[in-house]
Specification:
single chain, 340 residues, alpha+beta, Ubiquitin-like (UB roll), Creatine Kinase, Chain A, domain 2, nine-stranded mixed beta sheet, five-stranded mixed beta sheet, 14 strands, globular
Length: 340
């Protein structure tokens, strides 16, 4: 008899940063299709999502991927619902207004690999500091590089799972890395980042490491970690107009605080105006400007103002569902104003 292991993955209700949770459901004669994954439940009183006297929350499957590390295993990304089937307050995915998948997102997920024995990033000596940033970015060799074995294994299992990882690189600090993921559809983009994060965190269990998504886990002259959001829709991909791009960028200015509110906790420690960031209290945009809030890629300009934008403000611990959702809303509002 064929039995499959379905790993249901969801986001808990902790604040200011939600964490991943998962549990396994064993089913018989599973065909590997999303529609064959039943709605399941969990104890919301253990995840800050319900009270003990009414503790059941529902898990609605929304995406499925093969699990490369389990025999007959599948990774099932889910949304959390209330018992009556309505979206739970912690469920940001359900609020994304992109049912036609017109929005494309490319997230650049930065993170630190931490040693459980020292609670320091790999490459940081106990009781001291490594050399200043500069030599570590995209480096090779044991003098400047730590954690490559885990990073390479993570890339392999993500690709085996069918996630559209488009690249990896070491970042500017020891033990700091990045992977890039691209997806057509705001919800799908969020699904893939969360599943990639899940695989990364699970992988550390056998290495004696853990993943740190705090945007500034180490004080000092370091860039910190972000989750830059590259985005486009039909308008941006086909605009052919500098004025359209500037109008959309300007639409982000009056709602800058609303964006910052969902761009990750402790982001003020990273967005200082230094280290290729704009101050958290300012808003700006510019062509090829990595010190701006929103960068207009030079390729977009060279392609006749047809392409995408990069919001550089989201922190590494931000929820990609919330980031994508508010970007979609702001761009859509800007389009209404441009048409008017």
């Amino acid at each position: 008899m064929n039995k499959a292991k379905l790993e249901y993955i969801w986001l808990d209700g902790y604040t200011p940063t939600q964490e991943l949770r998962s549990k396994t459901k064993v089913v018989e004669n599973f065909d590997g299709k999303l529609e064959s994954c039943p709605i399941w439940s969990f104890d919301g009183s253990s995840t800050q999502q319900a009270e003990g006297n009414s503790s059941d929350c529902l898990l609605k499957p929304v995406a499925i991927y093969p699990d490369p590390e389990r025999v007959n295993g599948y990774l099932v990304m889910t949304e959390v619902l209330n018992p009556d089937g309505t979206p739970h307050a912690s469920n940001a995915r359900a609020a994304i207004d992109d049912d036609d998948n017109d929005f494309w997102f490319g997230f650049e997920q930065e993170y630190f690999i931490m040693d459980t024995k020292t609670d320091l990033p790999l490459g940081f000596p106990r009781g001291g500091f490594p050399g200043p940033q500069g030599q570590y970015y995209c480096s090779v060799g044991g003098r400047y590089t730590w954690g490559r074995q885990l990073v390479e294994e993570h890339l392999d299992i993500c690709l085996q799972a069918g996630l559209n990882i488009e690249g990896i690189n070491q970042e500017v600090a020891p033990g700091q890395w990045e992977f890039q993921n691209f997806a057509k559809g705001a919800k799908k983009a969020g699904d893939e980042i969360w599943v990639a994060r899940y695989l990364l965190n699970r992988l550390t269990e056998k290495y004696g490491y853990y993943i740190e998504l705090h945007p500034k886990p180490i004080r000092g002259d370091w860039n910190g970690s972000g989750m830059h959001a590259n985005f486009s829709n039909s308008t941006l991909r086909n605009a052919g107009s500098k004025e359209v791009y500037e109008s959309i960028c300007e639409a982000f200015r009056p709602v800058a605080e609303k964006h910052i509110a969902v761009y990750g906790a402790y982001n003020d420690e990273r967005l200082t105006g230094l280290h290729e960031t704009q101050s958290i209290n300012e808003f700006s945009y510019g062509v090829s400007d990595r010190g701006a809030s929103i960068r207009i890629p030079i390729i977009t300009v060279q392609n006749g103002w047809k392409g995408w934008l990069e919001d550089r403000r989201p922190a590494s611990n931000a929820d990609p569902y919330k980031v994508a959702g508010i970007i979609v809303n702001t761009v859509k509002n800007a389009e209404v104003e441009v048409e008017a």
